[in-house]
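Human: We require from you a protein record containing the residue sequence and its fold in token form, and nothing else.

Assistant:
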Amino acid sequence: MKKILIFLMFIAAAVISAQSNTKKSIDLTRGSVEEKFNEVYTKSSNYQDYKVIKKYIFNQLKKEVLDSLKKEKNNYKNAQNEIVKLQNQINKLQTDLNQANAQIETLTEQKNNIQFLGMNIEKSKYQWIVWSIISVLIFVLIYFIYLYINSQKVTKTAKQNLTKLEEEYFNFKSTALEREQNLKRQLLDERNKNQA
């Protein structure tokens, strides 16, 4: 009986050992694909120069690899979609930037130019034209002031000469009138002498 008991214990130990070997737990849900292959390789059994992989481990590895590939494809598609989306945003922003630059250029041109006589003229040229016109007008004003002052002097001199001339004329007229009266008296006296 002892022999049977030892034999049964030996068989039980062998069965438990075999079950533990067949159910070596391999966790393929974690790690990268390379780590999964390495784990399958290290936990698989050897047969001559070959590695023997159990079907359920192979199927689990296949499922995990396909899931990883599917996930990477989805990530790749999402990344491509994101790239397209970002490229569209970049294009839109570039268009907005170009429009903003065009508006800035237009506003700068409007700021630096002024509408004068229906033409766009740079402000510096406009200022030069305005100051030229102001300078010419000041010169013309000074010239007319000079002419006015000169004409005032001429007028004053002419009035003074006229006044003197009028005095001389009045004196001459009085003198001539007196002479005429004297001559008329003399003529009348001479006529009276000749008649008498």
Q: What stands out?
A: The chain has a mean pLDDT of 83.
